[in-house]
Structure formats: C-alpha cells, structure tokens
Amino acid sequence: MEVRRVLLKDHTTLAVGGPAELWLLEHPDELPEATAAPYRVLGNGSNLLVADQGVPERVIKLAGRFAEGELTGWVGAGSLLPIWVQEAARQGLSGLEPLLGIPASVGGAVRMNAGTRFGAIADALAEVEYFHQGRFFRKSPGEIGFGYRKSGLPPGAIVTRVRFDLKRASREAVAARMAAVDAARKGQPKRKSAGCAFKNPDHDAAGRLIDAAGFKGFRVGRAMVSHEHANFVVNLGGATAREIWQLIEAIRATLPLELEWEVWGVIEP
Ligand code: FAD
Ligand code: EPU
C-alpha cells in the first residue's frame, strides 16, 4: 500500500481536479485499513469532474493484485476494460464487443454499467465481488440490479473483481461485431474528455438536443462543447472544473438533461 498526495488532474481523462490523498492498494487485505476513514474509489477517472480544490476524502485506487486476472476466471476491478475486450477477441470469446472503446477500469465500468447502444457490461457479467462495510460479497448481476448507466451496488461498495459470462464464437464474428461498435463511435472526439456529459433522455439523444440548441463550439475559458459530438465537453488544455461547470450550467439552463458524469468535491458557481 502506498499513500501520497496527488493532483487528481493527473488521474482523470478530463485532466481536471485538485489535490487529494491517494491510497494505492495492492492487496485485498489492505481494504479494512483504507476504508476506516471517509473515502472515494477512483477507477480510470474517465467519468469524473473533480473540483479544482480537490477532495478531503481519501481516494482509493486498486492496483497490484486488484489489476490482475484471467479472462475466463476472476478479473481484477483495477484492471483496464479495453485489455479484456481485446483479449476476448483474441481468444474468440463473445460478450465484451459492445464495450469496445470505453476507457474504464473494470470496477468503474460495473459501477456505471458502462455500455453503448449495442449492450452494457451488466449483460456480460456472471458474478461481481465487492467489499462493503468490512465484508466481501459475491452477487449475480440480477441480485445487484443494473439500469441505464447505473448499478444497484450499495453506496461505498468497492468492486474488487468480476467473472465475465462469455460465449465461444468465431474470431471473425467477434471482429465483425467490434467493427460495428467502432463505426458507431467514429464521430466521437479524440481530445481530452470524460465521455458523454449527459445521459440520453428517453427516446432521444442528448447530443442531438445540445447540437440542435446551437451549443457546438460553445466555450467557457478552456472548456468547449465538441464540434464533433455535442454531448462531449472537451478540455482544450488547462480548463478548470469551474469553467466546465459553468458550461454545463449554461446547457442545463436551456435543456433539462441529467448529468452522466460524477462530480467530486465542491465546485464554486
Ligand atoms: P471513474 O471515472 O474513475 O469512476 C466513476 C464512478 O465509478 C465513481 O463513482 C467511482 O467511485 C466508481 N468506481 C470506480 N472504480 C470502482 C470500484 N472498483 N468499485 C466501486 N466503484 C468504483 N461510458 C459508457 O458507458 N459508454 C461509452 O461509450 C463511453 N465512452 C467514453 C469515451 C471516452 C473517450 C471517455 C473519456 C469516457 C467514456 N465513457 C463511456 C465514460 C466512462 O468511461 C465510463 O463511465 C466508465 O464506466 C468509468 O469508469 P472508470 O473506471 O474510469 O471510473
Ligand atoms: N447527434 C447529433 N449531433 C451531435 C451528436 C449526435 O445530431 O453532435 C445525433 C446523431 O446523429 C444520432 C444521435 O444524436 O442521431 C445519437 O448520437 P450517437 O449515435 O453518437 O450516440 P449517443 O446516443 O450520443 C451513445 C452513448 C455513448 C456511446 C455511443 C455509441 C450515451 C449518453 N451515450 O451516444 O456513450 O459511446 O452511444 O453507442 O448513452 C458515454 O456514455 O459516455 C458515451 C460516450
């Protein structure tokens, strides 16, 4: 276990966020001590807007033993999802194709039920292990309960590892399904972002609504609504959480959209 002060902008894909105490855990035995004071869990930081002032809680990140695993056995929650998507394709195992292009940790993907219109991670899970209030639990996805970009995991639960539910398939069939997902993502920007800022409302797309309202290219400081896809807010370099929040509020003053990102800390308006 290693504890150090960091800037969360170095641990989030938006490259925004102030100081915090990072607890880098290597082994499940370290969970009781790490969770003995208020904490947050950091995955790959790809769905987070973190305040410029940072957060007072410990920030737990899963490394070491938590980042290891085997595709057909238990997979550590601290490992990166894209690695398993590629490994499944290599082995001719089907189930993870819809998750192509999602830059999540396995644990963060489970918490958010990450997915695309082709399917979500809950559809590809056999079992989830998590640590909560000093104990380990193992549950089926049905017992946890998942919805669109949400899971029924109890607050504070730390996903430690999962077992995937994969089916044998030809490598060609898996590759073809991945190509379809890749094609659907082609319009997404390559600049620093945290993915889609808002959830899609029923029967519509937040990106279409934000675009139609004329927000593409709208800027606050170094934060901008992407020209490529209007549901992506991009950091042009050096954006602050405050600038990004002002941009989000400007959109929400026009459109009643629900944020998909998680916001950490207090962002002054
Ligand atoms: P973080 O952003 O670090 O954390 C998100 C939440 O998960 C926090 O509440 C955190 O506390 C919690 N968490 C993290 N790890 C654990 C754990 N081990 N146990 C319990 N809770 C945990 N999302 C999609 O759904 N579909 C997409 O197509 C998609 N495309 C994206 C493209 C880009 C370029 C980017 C930057 C993001 C995209 N996202 C997409 C958003 C993001 O990748 C997902 O929301 C992802 O699930 C976040 O995972 P993470 O590990 O980065 O979690
Ligand atoms: N659209 C516009 N203008 C834009 C962007 C989109 O008119 O600027 C229109 C498109 O033409 C299309 C519709 O909106 O008719 C939907 O767009 P798209 O196909 O790009 O999909 P999306 O609903 O915006 C969803 C997920 C993405 C996921 C893709 C691929 C949400 C909020 N977003 O995007 O997930 O990658 O499908 O399946 O559910 C994320 O959650 O962070 C994320 C990136």
Task: Please tell me about this protein's structure.
This protein is α+β, with helices and mostly antiparallel strands and about 270 residues long. The chain folds into 3 domains: about 1-65, 2-Layer Sandwich (Uridine Diphospho-n-acetylenolpyruvylglucosamine Reductase, domain 2), CATH 3.30.43.10; about 70-185, Uridine Diphospho-n-acetylenolpyruvylglucosamine Reductase, domain 3 (2-Layer Sandwich); about 190-255, Alpha-Beta Complex (Uridine Diphospho-n-acetylenolpyruvylglucosamine Reductase, domain 1). Helices cover about 25% and strands about 25% of the residues. The protein has helices spanning about 30-35, 80-90, 105-110, 140-145, 170-185, 205-210, 240-255, and strands at about 1-5, 20-25, 40, 50, 60, 75, 95, 115, 120, 125-130, 135-140, 145, 150, 160-165, 165-170, 220, 225, 235, 260-265. The strands form 7 sheets. Strands 1-2-5-3 form a 4-stranded mixed β-sheet, with no helix packed on it. A 4-stranded antiparallel β-sheet has the order 6-14-10-11. A 3-stranded antiparallel β-sheet has the order 16-17-18.
